[in-house]
Amino acid sequence: MNLKQIILILCLSFLSESFFAQNDSLKIDTTKVKLLKIETIDTLKVSKKKEKKPAIYDPLAPSKAAFYSAIFPGMGQIYNKKYWKAPIVWGALALPVYYYQINNSDYKRYRTAYKLRKNGLPDEFTVDGVEIVSTQTLETAQEQLRENRDMSLLTGVILYILQIVEASVNAHLIQFNTDDNLTVKPQLIFDPIRIETPSIGLTFKYNF
């Protein structure tokens, strides 16, 4: 082997090493670029999370919800975006209104018949001179129907006030920031001393 061949082999080996070194450097550079991209994406996500502003407490929201419920029952629940509560409010208020109308209508019928009979005039409960319902029954029915009518009215008023209070309280509570620490976690704790006679208790644990 002459000197030229040796020099050629050395040059080729040097070039091959430099070529592989360039490839390795390119690989390192690409990994660095990927890491930089990941870091920039993470920083952007963190910055976006930090940009989210906390919900602003509106002290007038409970008053608005109560005012809307007072104007029209169920509107305060809709204002609080609790849409499923509105049909419940309407159904709850529809029942006392329905029974109030029925009891009031029957009360007027029996009262009119009672007045006509007291004055010696025919009424709807007298057929061919025969009294289907006695005078005492007419008087007792009046008292019972009047009591039922008043109870229906009282129930409707109570439900009307309750739906106003519920809308106001709900508007106040939904603005609180809830945290995972403010949770109830039931847990069974066995007492090794009293295994045969288990006991039931309640323990509160506060995490700060």
Walk me through what this model shows.
This is DUF5683 domain-containing protein. It holds the Pfam family DUF5683. Keywords: Signal. With about 210 residues, this protein is an all-alpha fold. It folds into 2 domains: about 10-50; about 60-175. Helix content is about 65%, strand content about 0%. The protein has helices spanning about 5-50, 60-70, 75-80, 85-120, 135-175, and strands at about 125, 130. Strands 1-2 form a two-stranded antiparallel sheet. A hairpin with a 2-residue loop joins strand 1 (about 125) and strand 2 (about 130).
Ends: how far apart? 83 Å
What's the number of domains? 2
Q: What is the gyration radius calculated from CA atoms?
A: 42 Å
Secondary-structure class: mainly alpha
- How is the main sheet built? 2 strands, antiparallel
Shape: elongated
Instruction: Provide the low-confidence segments as ranges.
Output: 17-30, 32-36
Please trace the helix and strand order, writing H or E for each element. HHHHEEH
Helical proportion, percent range: 55-70%
Please tally the helical runs, counting DSSP H or I stretches of 4 or more residues.
5
Tell me how many strands there are: 2
Beta-strand content estimate: under 5%
Features of this protein?
two-stranded antiparallel ribbon; mainly alpha; 2 strands; 208 residues; 2% strand; DUF5683 domain-containing protein; DUF5683
Task: Produce the secondary structure layout.
Blueprint: H1 3-51, H2 61-71, H3 75-79, H4 85-118, E1 126-127, E2 130-131, H5 135-173
Antiparallel strand pairs: 1-2
Helix pairs in contact: 2-5, 4-5
